[in-house]
Design a protein that fits this description.
The protein is built from 4 helices and 5 strands. It has 140 residues and is an alpha+beta fold.
Length: 140
């Protein structure tokens, strides 16, 4: 895709700080480091989001995540944990519409990244209805 910034990075038209690359993925430092080592992993094939992956692409991309995450974690003894995130769609905070996975090293509970969400109580009937609706789609 000619106007995709990530495709331009893949094609070496825009410089980046690549930490890993092979025939399937490229992993590079996010230009906006949430914490030091914040890395994006993306398939070289242009797909807008995770819903566009086929089984082969999903397998090929996700089997590389542990290796990359371990390299990041082992690169700095101060890293205590790692968040792995994938945003899909504008409402989910996806800002570049070439699928990518964030690997965010965590140094402490006070570092510059946090996830906090509000939970909602549901009745058993509501949970069963949600379950059935999703399960029905799994059959499609």
């Amino acid at each position: 895709m000619t106007d995709c910034i990530f495709c331009k990075i893949i094609n070496k038209e825009i410089p980046s700080y690549v930490i890993y690359e092979d025939e399937v993925v490229v992993a590079f430092l996010d230009i906006s480091q949430v914490t030091p080592g914040h890395t994006l992993v993306l398939p070289k094939k242009h797909v807008p989001n995770i819903m566009e992956y086929d089984e082969e692409l999903a397998s090929d991309v996700f089997k590389r995540i542990p290796k990359i995450a371990n390299a990041i974690k082992n690169s700095n003894p101060d890293i205590k944990g790692i968040n792995i995130l994938n945003n899909n769609g504008e409402v989910a905070f996806q800002s570049v519409f070439h699928s990518h996975i964030h690997i965010i090293p965590r140094y402490s509970e006070q570092d510059s990244f946090g996830l906090k969400w509000q939970t909602h109580e549901h009745t058993n009937d509501e949970l069963l209805a949600i379950t059935n609706s999703i399960a029905k789609q799994m059959e499609a």
